[in-house]
Specification:
This protein is α+β, with helices and mostly antiparallel strands and 242 residues long. The protein has one domain. The chain contains six helices and nine strands, in the order αααβββββαββαββα. The strands form three sheets. Strands 1, 2, 3, 4 and 5 form a five-stranded antiparallel sheet that branches. Strands 6-7 form a two-stranded antiparallel ribbon.
Length: 242
Amino acid sequence: MMAMLNQGTKMIRLNVVLFVMFLFYSCENKKAMDYESYSKMSVGKSEYNKIYKQASDSIKLWANKDLGNYGGFKEFNRGYLLDSTICFNKSKNKFVGALLINHKEHENATLDDIWFFYGAKVDSIWYFFKGADITLPREMYQKDVTKPLSFEKLHEIALKEVFSGYLKEKEPIVPFWKFWQKQEYEVNEAWFDYHFYVSANDGPCSYFNKKEYLWIDTCAPENREATYNKFYIKLANSKWEP
């Protein structure tokens, strides 16, 4: 009788261990989410690479011609790189990217930057424009503040600070199944709405509510897309203006 009780106790312990291992695996699997692979899969690797090259080449052109916010990149030999991850929405006509910038041109610099970088497709043409800045004190990430953060480190930071809202957990058909099936993810459209409509560089229908301390989009739904498409084109072309 005692032997049977011991065997039963061992089985319970084994089941508990397996369940804990399952939960740990699920958490680790979520942490290991690869935004770049998901984005490539959603639009196709060839199309992804084509758009990435077009955006990257555009940034190089603007830097070489000292246009807009990119003025001084060439003169001061500023380090910049469009992050390899660009996240597309479900309609595949918008993406959120990150321009990684290390200030190697200044000997006394102790900060580096990440710029939100956006792409919007209007009438089959891609338009690219800059978003907000993230200023990164080097002391938060390394001991030697005289050396700029590497692109590898900036990429690591961008995954957390820029891209973390790209995907959301997909709800299973039967809620209870989520404890047993592999977690699936889908594009978080609300994240794109925030970037392209709510906080879009002081866009035509967005304003900052100081009382509530948040951005608010006031465009009528039926006019929003057309209104903002005109704004994206104007924003993308503004760097060419004298």
